Amino acid sequence: MNSSPPASPPSRTRRLFLRAAFALGVIGGTAAALAPILRSDPRTPVSPGADAAGPPAAEHFDEMYGGRRIQGTDAGVLVDGRPLHMMRRADGSYVSVVNHFESFPTALATARAAVDDLGGSRLALAGPAFH
Amino acid sequence: MHIRKNQRNLTSAEKKRFVTTLLELKRQGGYDDFVRQHVRYYRADGDGGPRTGHMAPTFLPWHRKYLLEFERALQRIDPKVTVPYWDWTTDNTPAASLWSEDFLGGDGRSSDGQVTTGAFAYAAGNWTINDGVLERKFLVRAFGRPTSPIALPTKNELAWAMNEPVYDAAPWDSTVTRGFRNRLEGWTAGSDRTRWRNHNRVHRWVGGQMLGATAPHDPVFWLHHSFVDLLWDRWQQKHPKATYLPRRKLDDDDPQSGRAISLDEPMPPWRTKPSEVLSHRALYRYEA
């Protein structure tokens, strides 16, 4: 799955995200869960109830929050440059790998909540402990 | 046939047996297989594809089978072990014996959330977390979310789910406002204080790994879901004419076709059908 390049040359951010996402995907089925995120075109508006997996559609932000840099990019949300795995609920809100039992209305709110609950930890970049 | 007891009634010897067996399953590697399985079968309803573990009618039968498989793995190490249950409407404070040194250990410390008491404390050397999700290797808890406190669900809040006469309803996902399943699972809209209900709220209250996809890293996961499993049983007693829904495979033109699993369709990864696990009474019983 890491050998299929995007149709157009990827941006540096997207390339980093893809590499990091693949590393993250090494844990079990997260790879499968990430697949639709990697496939989807972030510029396509998401409609609730549709196949709405994917990064926050064109929700761009870049701020310091709780001492962490959080970014919303075309390819997904990053915390200190590391991908925050997110899933979409049918009502259009999000859950993240850090908060799977509550949802947030926007990608920015999801990123901030993840920072709140990360404590002092960082998201893992390459943690192939499960394979 | 074995008995799942209320954790508050366990003897010291039973607690020790449970803890020791968990540590051995962890040492052998089997424990982390279960954590991985929970991650793998968590799919949100905004995604395509079948949902088995969460945001779906199979939330209850899937976790019943999952707990049963876990319990069997423990019993291969010690045939006398069963998974106790935690009634969080009763044992609803950090002072509950559940969190004592000789059982699951207590809250995380304020600096980094690390659990430092009991057998699952990182420093004890037997409970290292290494899953590729976060860099931290230690078990974390933050009881009641100190930054913006919440309480565990009350009996009244649980009754709001238990009194629902219908098992589940279209669209069979996290947005349905009716039905026992989602009211117990706890996906509802609302303000910051009210948007978690019942099952989800308990995950939120414990904090740490219990908040995330890798929630089974915290052994309390099993006691929480053992109680959720018992609640399904109690709900069936309360509503004897109610049945699992959807009963039939959804029509091809239904938006949830291929996504929500009906009564006689197999649930991955075991191929078990919900209809096969509607009752647990041939397999185990709950202490009255």
What keywords describe this structure?
heterodimer; A: 131 residues; alpha+beta; disordered N terminus; B: 288 residues; two-stranded parallel ribbon; 2% strand; globular
Which class best fits the helix and strand makeup of chain B? Answer: mainly alpha
Low-confidence segments of chain A, given as residue ranges, are 1-54, 127-131
Terminal residue distance of chain A:
15 Å
Beta-strand level of the residues of chain B, as a percent range? under 5%
Rg of chain A, alpha carbons: 14 Å
- The coarse overall form of chain B would be globular
Query: What is the strand arrangement across the widest sheet of chain B?
Result: 1-2
Helices of chain B, by number, come to: 7
Number of strands of chain B: 2
Radius of gyration based on Cα positions of chain B: 18 Å
Oligomer: heterodimer
How many helix segments of chain A? 3
Descriptive overview:
Chain A is α+β, with helices and mostly antiparallel strands and 131 residues long. Chain A has helices at residues 12-25, 30-39, 107-118, and strands at residues 61-65, 68-73, 76-79, 82-83, 86-88, 94-96. Chain A contains three helices and six strands. In chain A, the strands form two sheets. A four-stranded antiparallel β-sheet of chain A has the order 1-2-3-4, with helices on both faces. In chain A, a hairpin with a 2-residue loop joins strand 3 (76-79) and strand 4 (82-83). Chain A starts with 11 loop residues before the first helix and ends in a 13-residue tail after the last helix. In chain A, 46% of the residues are buried. Residues 1-54 and 127-131 of chain A have low confidence and may be disordered. By secondary structure, chain B is mostly helical. Chain B is built from seven helices and two strands; from the N terminus they run βαααααααβ. Chains A and B meet through helix 2 and helix 3 of A and helix 2 and helix 6 of B.
